[in-house]
Amino acid sequence: MRAIIQRVAEARVTIAGSVKGAIRNGLLVLLAVEESDTAEDIEWLSGKIVRLRIFNDVSGVMNRSVQEVGGDILLVSQFTLFASTKKGNRPSYSRSARPEIAVPLYEQFIARLAQDLGKPVQTGEFGAHMDVSLTNDGPVTIIVDSKLRE
Fold it and tell me: What is the mean pLDDT of each run of 10 residues along the chain (150 residues)?
């Protein structure tokens, strides 16, 4: 699994003109699933996201997690995070899991993330054309990959 994590003052996802999910102060997480992902990837990545210390403490140092600040999470599926531009100019998405594999893992990830966060997670809709808007706070943007464990 690969995630782009953005600290946001606000974020929302709109589908066909209707807001599907929206948050204030928290994290916008764009998530891609690959075929080799397992429950272990879900557990590790969810824990990493919830405990990632990228919110300011009283001294202005990034030393608090989304959980510690009572923030929310908006999770949006984005298969293009596994794009390969190695050959030519048309990206290949062959590392991204097919929907029959990705959807159950995505749904398991939502449940685990909500459990780890201690409250419901807002989401987009898997496979839908979505308009995502955000106010990046900082800006703070971090890329995390469950296979690299960095």
Answer: 97 97 97 94 97 96 96 94 85 85 95 98 95 96 87
